[in-house]
TrEMBL record:
This is Pilus assembly protein PilP. Pfam families: PilP. It comes from the Bacteria. It comes from Simonsiella muelleri ATCC 29453. Signal peptide: none annotated. Transmembrane segments: none annotated. Residues 41-50 have a biased composition (Pro residues). Residues 31-50 are annotated as: Disordered.
Length: 181
């Protein structure tokens, strides 16, 4: 009986010495050996032929060109420039994106617009003929829904052009306003 009792701990000791997860490791090794890849070998790239460039006849930078002459000369000044000697009104120093049309006062044909300035957070009363914004914008029409301005702006050639800008009720005009020509 004592021999049997000594045999049980020896068997347990022998099984405890075997590597942990030995069957899992053996399965992984056999699976890796049997696995085959299904990749195709890469094909070599095709050589592209370079495109032929045939430049036009050499250009002489000092030669006479009608096109250069046209672009160098400013066009005849069109449009009437604004009166720069006129004293500026208070809201001409504020850009249009900081002005907001908030309402009207008056009745019938004579409406005055209420303009809120974001610079000083005050509400100003303006009429047709007053100026707004930094582009010489003159108020040409006031309705309960919008104020219409006629701006005079200078283009890259020094020509003055007129454009209409509409300030809708309750909205500020973005830095690039919707322009009606």
């Amino acid at each position: 009986m004592k021999a049997k009792l000594l045999l049980i701990p020896l068997i347990m000791l022998a099984t405890a010495c075997s590597e942990e997860n030995e069957d899992l490791t053996e399965w992984m090794q056999t699976t890796q050996k049997n696995a085959k890849s299904h990749l195709k070998p890469p094909t070599p790239p095709e050589m592209a032929e370079p495109a032929q460039y045939n430049p036009p006849a050499p250009i002489n930078p000092h030669a006479f060109s009608v096109y250069r002459m046209r672009s160098a000369q400013p066009q005849i000044n069109s449009g009437t420039p604004p009166d720069l000697r006129r004293p500026k009104q208070l809201l001409e120093t504020v850009s249009l994106d900081k002005l907001k049309f908030v309402g009207t006062i008056g009745s019938g044909n004579h409406l005055s617009a209420l303009i809120n300035s974001a610079d000083d957070n005050l509400v100003y009363t303006v009429n047709v003929g007053n100026y707004l914004g930094q582009n010489y914008g003159r108020i040409i029409k006031i309705t309960p829904d919008a104020v219409t301005l006629s701006e005079t702006v200078e283009d890259t050639n020094g020509n003055w052009e007129k454009r209409q800008v509409v300030m809708p009720l309750g909205e500020t005009i973005p830095a690039q306003p919707q322009i009606k020509k």
